[in-house]
Amino acid sequence: LLSDKDRHVKAKAAGALQSLAVDEDNQKKIKALGAIPLVTKLLSSRTPEVQSNAAGCLHNLAVNDEEAQRMVADSGAVPPLVNLINTASPDLQAKAAATIWSIAGVEDNRRRIMEAGGIPSLVKVLSGKSTDAQTKASGAIRCLTMSAFTRPEFERTGAVPHLVALLSSGHQELTINAAGALENL
């Protein structure tokens, strides 16, 4: 169904996998069936619902699972996720940033994210209007800044003033992420 020609079928299939991927047993089955590369292909769909569900599925698979984090990055997901962060859609920005955040626990993935242009893209989201997208982007930034090799890129892109501004956002998770990123920098 993920390869169906009908975009509505793809959207529903990716949405179903996104929901199923919340459960640990289902995560194992989805990984074992080799669905990650198929879901990754959907990130490049022209249909926002398909893209959103695919990003959400990959996020759910990768959260707290280092093997899945590596599998998602190895499937080629990083460049299309960065492309989604660069869209005008706050939903797609949030979903893609959440997925970047969930795979950034692996240092090799942090390098891939940086090389794909993810750092300036995430920094740009910080000045947007969507609190959800800002929260996910700041979480990804917090994780990315754990590696010393990413820090000069954050300084070059002017992340610090944006992160400082978010400290007074009034949203707890956003404030915690911004403070954590600043501490790492």
What does this molecule look like?
The protein is built from 13 helices and no strands. It is an all-alpha fold and about 180 residues long. The chain has one domain: Leucine-rich Repeat Variant (Alpha Horseshoe), CATH 1.25.10. The termini are far apart. InterPro entries: ARM-like (IPR011989), ARM-type_fold (IPR016024), Armadillo (IPR000225), Vac8 (IPR045156). Its main location: membrane.
List keywords for this structure.
185 residues; mainly alpha; Leucine-rich Repeat Variant; 0% strand
Briefly, what is this?
The protein is an all-alpha fold.
Report the C-alpha radius of gyration, rounded: 16 Å
Average pLDDT works out at 96
SS content category: mainly alpha
Question: What is the CATH third-level topology name?
Answer: Leucine-rich Repeat Variant
Relevant CATH superfamily: Leucine-rich Repeat Variant
Summarize the main sheet.
none
| Number of DSSP strand runs | 0
End-to-end span in angstroms?
Answer: 44 Å
Query: How many alpha or pi helices?
Result: 13
Approximately how much beta-strand content do the residues carry?
under 5%
Oligomer: single chain
Percent of residues in helices: over 70%
Q: What order do the helices and strands come in, and which of them pair?
A:
Layout: H1 7-20, H2 24-32, H3 35-42, H4 48-62, H5 66-74, H6 78-85, H7 90-103, H8 107-115, H9 118-126, H10 131-144, H11 151-156, H12 159-166, H13 172-184
